[in-house]
Amino acid sequence: MYSNMKITINGNIREFTYESMTADELVVELKLTGKRFAIERNGEIMPKSLFKQFIINDGDYLEIVGAVGGG
Amino acid sequence: MNKDELIIAGRTFRSRLLIGTGKYRDFKETRSAIDQSGSEVVTVAIRRTNIGQNENEQSLIEFLPPNEFTYLPNTAGCYSADDAIRTLHLARELLDGHNLVKLEVLGDPKTLYPNVVETLKAAAVLIKDGFDVMVYTSDDPIIAKKLEDIGCCAIMPLASLIGSGMGILNPWNLEIIIDTLSVPVIVDAGVGTASDAAIAMELGCDGVLMNTAIAAARDPIMMAGAMKKAIEAGREAFLAGRMSKKLYSASPSSPLSGLIK
Hints:
The complex is a heterodimer of chains A (71) and B (261).
Chain A: E1 5-9, E2 12-16, E3 20-22, H1 23-29, E4 38-41, E5 44-46, E6 55-57, E7 61-69
Parallel strand pairs in A: 1-7
Antiparallel strand pairs in A: 1-2, 3-6, 4-5, 4-7
Chain B: E1 6-8, E2 11-13, E3 17-20, H1 27-37, E4 41-48, H2 60-63, E5 70-73, H3 81-94, E6 100-103, H4 116-128, E7 132-137, H5 141-149, E8 154-157, H6 171-180, E9 186-188, H7 194-203, E10 207-210, H8 212-215, H9 220-240
Parallel strand pairs in B: 3-4, 3-10, 4-5, 6-7, 7-8, 9-10
Antiparallel strand pairs in B: 1-2
Helix pairs in contact in B: 1-9, 3-4, 5-6, 7-9
């Protein structure tokens, strides 16, 4: 039986039925597959090349950003 | 005729007009305006992405493919060196290692005037981290020179406040900056209409970066075309070398001899 994990994503707390997950799994959960974005975990960039290995844990805080119109 | 190109950190551009992508009605209008302007460099902001709210929401990148344009991610909204550095590291990851960036560290939300102390700090770190830094700054020639000395690849002084449309308020300072620096000087912010852009280029600026002057025009697409022509006209006038001003002596253009009697 999995316990829920809580992650703060862009300032909002989200719950997942995992104990821990890889960044790849998170991308699927958030329906971000194929989109262009960058993730920072606890203040550190997570390189896309390491998404398969990178483990996200209960209590992590993430910033997920994209490019928007701006001057 | 020699090719007159703008070279920034080894990248070559035909257009000297750099465009911001904010404040347009929609992405289609953004794209049309940029096409009309002939601009090759487009600035973008880095913001939290929507998570799950709207899966089919269109994104700016779909309308401006990064293989067609040179992206210039900015640090708009950053008020400290640390925030700006963090933002541009995310931008580099977002854009697959693209390292040409626009650094701006603001000092005050009301005027959006740059905080040059934090700007200098951030620029030094970013350059050490391998970024090519185009930097928004005040029109202070000493700060502009310092930013060049620490390795910024283009210095971008304001013409007037961001989004103000007040035009070029201190052409004398801009001239000092242009005369003093060797890296490209690009006027960034304050242009209101085509003549402002032409004046910047006549002063000898290497380019102009603008957003609101186009996006907030009644017809942004037509204004984008006007800006393109203004930049080209101003550049040619600068290269051609204007006549000297003669305040008190008129000189007729027609011959004085052969007048009918």
